[in-house]
Structures are given as C-alpha cells and as structure tokens.
Amino acid sequence: MASHTEFGAKTDAKDVFAAFPTAVEGKVALSPVLITGVSPKGLGAQIAQSLATQKPKLLILTGRFPSKVEAVARDISTPGLEIRIVLFDISSLASVATAVDQINAFAEPSIDLVFNNAGVMNIPERRLSADGFEYHLATNYLGLALLTNGILPKVKKSDAGRIVNVVSNGYALSPFRFSDYNFDGVDDLPQDEQPSKDAMAAFGIPFGLGYIPPVAYGQSKTAAMLYTRELADKLKGTNATALSVMPGVIDTDLWREMPAETVKAVLSSLPLKSTSQGIATMLVAALDPKLKESGGAYLEDCQVADVQPFASDKAKSEKLWQLTEKLTGTTFTV
C-alpha cells in the first residue's frame, strides 16, 4: 500500500514532490537518475524536466535519436545540473549492451532511480527487430530487461535504489505467449496463452490468435510486469526494488504508429491525464519509502492495484526469466 491513500488520477508531480521531501533530498539530489525513451513529446521529457526542478546531481537521458534527446536536454536550465546523454536503440541487443558498458563506465558508483520509459505501441504490421524478435517484445521488454540487469550493480549500490518500469493496463489483453511470443502463428496456442476475449471485447478489438497490434503490445507489457515481479523477488534483502507503473492515458508521442483520426477518437473517448498527472504515479513508485515493502507491485493512479493472475504468477515469471536469458544470450545475475 502507498503512503498517501488520498492520491489518485488527478495527483500531479508537484503533489508527489511535496509529499516526499526527504526522499527527494536523499535520492534525487544525491545520486544519478537514469531515464530511457527521452523525446520532446513524451513522458521521458516530462519526468526529466520535473526532476530537474528538484536540483538533482546528475540526469542520464537516453534515447535512440540524438536530436530528440538533445532537444530535451536543451530545455532544462537548472543551474549546476549535469546532464549526460547515452544514445542507443533499445530494440537492439547489441546496442543495449554497448549502452550498458557506457553507463557502467561512469565514475559514479551508484544509480538511485531508473525510469524504464522507452516503448512502442500498436505497430500496424508485424515487424521484427534486428535480432529477429517481434518489435513490441524487443523494445518494451527484451531491451528493458537487458539494460536493467546490465546496470543493476550500480542500482544495488544505492541506499534505496528503485527501478520503475512503465507498463499499461493494456497488459490485460494478453498473457505471455510462451508458445508463440514472436507471433509467428501456431494452430494450437494453449488456452492459457490466448488473448483475453473479455478484454478484447472491452477494448473493441476482434478476437484472433494472429498478429493483432494491441495484443502484441499487451503481451510485451505482461512480460515487463512478470519480469518486474521476479526481479523484485530476487532483490529481496538488498536496498533496491522494482515496480511496474501504469501512467494513464496521455497525449504523447507513444501514439505515433496509429492513424491520427484513430488517436483523436481514442483520446476523446477516455479519461485523459496531463503529462504531469501521468508521471505522478512514476514518481510515487520512485519516492514513496513505504513501497519498498511492495516490490514487484503494479501501480495505477498513484496506488497499488491488483492485476490479472497471468501477470503475477510466480511460475510464469520464473519461466519467463529463463526464456529471457536464452533469448538475450545473457545470464541475469542479481
């Protein structure tokens, strides 16, 4: 349970900073903060700009495109704040590995906060990454896991390290498809790996077992949630933990793969948050000391929320961890 039960969908970043001054002074101001997926019209930019107002020691901003990350960095004018930019393609395992080496080479021994914000959504046609993985899975999960485990030693050296993984309630569309994670197409997809008919109906999506953009997106977010729970379990007894966060429905660049008229219709039909309200739950996950007891939890509207069993099942999280090591060719040591 979070410390402030009065927080909700309308809570914004300033409310969270005001609620946790000790955490701001002890974390943000003293140790590096790393943010992935930084671009001008995104939550990465908003979290960076908001944290900059709290006079952090160092912001590490990452992204794929130099012009986008540099534009965000230029807009931050906090005196004395050091900003470092690390450029890499999170969908590429080799690119992530290079970024891990670069970050680990920094002189600072620890990283207090990691905001894994980079992501893609609803790619219209099935696309594979350079390594041959379905693109949502590669970007929203495999790259996230490889980066996080690569820099984990620095997070564990923090007095209270937090890893905040941005997910979505769209996870409810699909369990992890161990039998067809790449959406290659199988005729006998097990029942417990099939998309949720109820969730698809609720989202207005026709049921099917093949590549459906929101289902592929949902599977990648289920994977991130299972990973977060397993990582938090393995971090028990250390100073660090990990949490999953659903920021809410926000008008950001995440919608870029969808037709403009579709995005307009969706955003006009759902409760819309400002970017400051969107990052509030991310900040609660990062700063609320009470949440150390809730490692692996899923937060929505600044509160811990229940999830579908397939997104929290221990056996599935262990199985996914092992599969992730196989797919990335890396042994994850915690």
From TrEMBL:
Which organism was this protein described from? Answer: Paraphaeosphaeria minitans
Concerning its family, UniProt says:
Belongs to the short-chain dehydrogenases/reductases (SDR) family.
Q: Which Pfam families match?
A: adh_short
The protein in question is named Short-chain dehydrogenase/reductase family oxidoreductase
Q: Report the Gene3D superfamilies cross-referenced here.
A: NAD(P)-binding Rossmann-like Domain
**Could you tell me the keywords of this UniProt record?**
Oxidoreductase
Q: Which GO terms describe its molecular function?
A: oxidoreductase activity
